[in-house]
Design goal:
single chain; alpha/beta; about 45% helix; disordered N terminus; disordered C terminus
Length: about 350
């Protein structure tokens, strides 16, 4: 059960009408959470059939209207669109006169702080950046997950209390992030959460290839323990062949990955090098063992053989690696926003709905 304090109705500020521009995974969940706190969703915009169905399921009875009309109807507007769409949307809404003085305008982008809302601020709006540090499914379970969820909050100092109050009403925990630190904050979340999904999915694929019938059941306890240990102990929780300096084992891994899943080699090597660096820095990996290990990783990155390492603890010869594809599929860690695009924004602004940041 959540321990987050939910204020009594008598303690809450005046109820607000709430609108959502972009009915992806995030917007309807936040609006539904605000509804539980006593606010009243009055309008939502959506482009794709999926977004419309999602809005109808999570905000039943709330009319679907164009973005400009959402702003006309609502005191508090949630702009839940993809990061790259947000600046143009805000500019378009401000230029067409859709923004009303005194209106609370909230975006949920992790990348941006409050400055992206400057065009709306000049039109008299009250700008807030409230980013929930949570992955969303687009189903009612998201509302429950907001209990205790941290929100990255950025706002003008005079609106700080209002921003934090809204987060608390949604069951979340406000965490103040300065304007200049928003990109770093978002990169940290993407590194930890978005890349984790890729790692787990790759691990399950490899286990299936190795004949494991229920890779999710095998990984669940292991990953749960590893995550808990990492959150509690940081780098002290590092285990495995890289942290131990088992160069021969790592060489065998690279060889097998080149044979069965060459697209995973680049990611494996990159994470192994990062792990080795951290293990060395924290005294977990002995320098005398690191030399062979780093040699294996260097050979692996060149796509050549992984043989020639002397092995550890008794002269186990390194396996001779087969050449493989480089396997770099450089996605640069962008966060997934799988909203469908559309063009129902005011005066040609894009009305895309953002989903999962």
């Amino acid at each position: 059960m959540s321990t987050v304090h939910q204020p009594d109705l008598k303690d809450r500020p005046a109820r607000l009408t709430v609108g959502v521009v972009g009915a992806g995974r995030v917007g309807p969940a936040l609006a539904a959470s605000l509804q539980l706190a006593g606010h009243r969703p009055v309008a939502v915009s959506g482009v794709s059939d999926a977004s419309r169905r999602r809005a109808e399921a999570m905000l039943p009875g709330v009319p679907l209207v164009p973005p400009a009309e959402v702003l006309q109807r609502a005191d508090l507007v949630l702009l839940t669109v993809p990061d790259d769409v947000l600046p143009g949307l805000v500019t378009g809404l401000a230029e067409t006169g859709a923004v009303r003085p005194g209106q609370l305008l909230v975006h949920t982008s992790g990348r941006y702080g409050a400055r992206v809302l400057d065009p709306a601020l000049r039109a008299g709006a009250l700008p807030l950046a409230l980013h929930p540090a949570m992955t969303f499914t687009g189903t009612p379970v998201d509302v429950q997950r907001l209990a205790g969820c941290s929100f990255g909050v950025t706002a003008p100092e005079e609106l700080r209390l209002a921003a934090e109050a809204l987060v608390i009403e949604m069951g979340g925990e406000p965490e103040w992030i300065s304007e200049q630190n928003r990109p770093l904050y978002h990169a940290a979340l993407a590194l930890g959460a978005n890349h984790l999904v890729t790692l787990v999915a790759q691990s399950m694929e490899l286990l299936r290839a190795a004949g494991v019938g229920a890779p999710d059941r095998m990984l669940g306890p292991l990953l749960g323990a590893a995550l808990d240990n990492a959150l509690r102990s940081g780098d002290a929780a590092l285990t495995g062949p890289v942290a131990r300096g088992d160069a021969g084992t790592v060489a065998a891994h690279v060889t097998e990955l080149r044979k069965h899943a060459p697209q995973t080699v680049a990611g494996y090597l990159a994470m192994a090098r990062a792990t080795a660096d951290r293990a060395l820095a924290h005294g977990l990996l002995k320098p005398e063992l690191a030399e062979d290990l780093l040699g294996v990783l260097a050979d692996g990155s060149r796509g050549g053989g992984t043989g020639g390492t002397s092995g550890t603890g008794g002269g186990t010869g390194g396996t001779s690696g087969t050449g493989g594809t480089d396997g770099t599929d450089g996605r640069n860690g962008t966060t997934g926003t799988d909203g469908s695009t559309g063009t129902d924004g005011p005066n040609g602004t894009t009305g895309t709905e953002g989903n999962d940041r």
